[in-house]
């Protein structure tokens, strides 16, 4: 009888411990614009809102939330032993400012018809550069601000350009004198490096792996080439006012696949969420 009781107690303890074994700690910020990462046992699977999430060889994964993400997201984990875990993630809502930008060249606010074909080519190149799902995990080593200077524009703000309402701003603007060095915010492979896009001006896109990319606009000089690898802190160009810009600055954007994230949440310059 005692032995039977002991077996039952052990079985009960194992049942209670199973969720702890499978417990997955999520790092990052569950907030609009936030990047979140974690690690599972190798061989596990993850999906977010029904879409598969890339898993690394050691079980690493990363995902993010856009500016207008709803109040909840569904995370489903299929553990290696077949156990299915479902979580409802609560996403914190943020309030965004209205930002007025004056003094822009009129044709950059309302592009003329002759720009349309060129813009199709340029935006296609940006989409292609952000579409890679490389195996490197430079995103896991953290980010640094790409340039010294004051923050002059913020993620999520509703922009009014020359008095005309436009789409929200999806980057972090850092203003500084023309020629101020711009450094790689994290390591990765350069997927795009062009000096003269119509609106972005000098542009560089760095693939940090797993669909996480950094894009930097309005560069005065582009000092890297497509296909080259950069380490965090490497010089990639300089601040300028190329493209649609009212003054010298770098516009830093971070994506997870096609989801636009808030770069300021990834660096030590903390913000009130």
Automatic annotation (TrEMBL):
Every M23ase beta-sheet core domain range: 168-263
Name the UniProt record assigns to this protein: Murein DD-endopeptidase MepM and murein hydrolase activator NlpD, contain LysM domain
InterPro entries in alphabetical order: Cell_wall_metabolism_enzyme (IPR050570), Dup_hybrid_motif (IPR011055), M23ase_b-sheet_dom (IPR016047)
Keywords, sorted A to Z: Hydrolase, Signal
GO molecular function: metalloendopeptidase activity
Family matches, as Pfam families: Peptidase_M23 (PF01551)
Region of interest called Disordered, as start-end residue ranges on this chain: 103-122
Annotated coiled-coil segments of the chain: none
Signal sequence, start to end: 1-23
Superkingdom in the source lineage: Bacteria
């Amino acid at each position: 009888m005692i032995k039977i009781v002991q077996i039952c107690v052990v079985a009960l303890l194992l049942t209670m411990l199973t969720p702890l074994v499978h417990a997955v700690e999520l790092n990052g910020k569950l907030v609009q614009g936030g990047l979140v990462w974690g690690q599972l046992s190798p061989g596990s699977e993850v999906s977010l809102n029904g879409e598969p999430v890339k898993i690394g060889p050691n079980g690493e994964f990363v995902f993010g939330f856009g500016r207008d993400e709803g109040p909840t997201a569904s995370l489903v984990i299929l553990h290696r032993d077949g156990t299915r875990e479902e979580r409802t993630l609560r996403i914190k809502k943020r309030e965004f400012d209205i930002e007025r930008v004056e003094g822009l060249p009129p044709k950059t606010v309302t592009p003329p018809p002759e720009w349309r074909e060129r813009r199709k080519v340029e935006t296609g190149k940006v989409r292609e550069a952000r579409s890679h799902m490389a195996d490197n995990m430079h995103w896991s080593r953290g980010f640094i601000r790409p340039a010294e200077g004051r923050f002059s524009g913020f993620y999520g703000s509703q922009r009014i350009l020359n008095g005309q309402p436009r789409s929200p701003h999806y980057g972090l603007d850092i203003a500084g004198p023309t020629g101020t060095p711009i450094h790689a915010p994290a390591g990765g492979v350069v997927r795009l490096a062009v000096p003269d896009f119509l609106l972005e001006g000098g542009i560089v896109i760095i693939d940090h792996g797993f669909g996480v990319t950094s894009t930097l606009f309005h560069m005065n000089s582009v000092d890297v080439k497509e296909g080259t690898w950069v380490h965090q802190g490497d010089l990639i160009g300089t601040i300028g006012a190329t493209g649609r810009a009212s003054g010298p600055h770098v516009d830093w954007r971070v994506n997870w696949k096609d989801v636009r994230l808030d770069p300021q949440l990834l660096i030590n310059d903390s913000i009130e969420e």
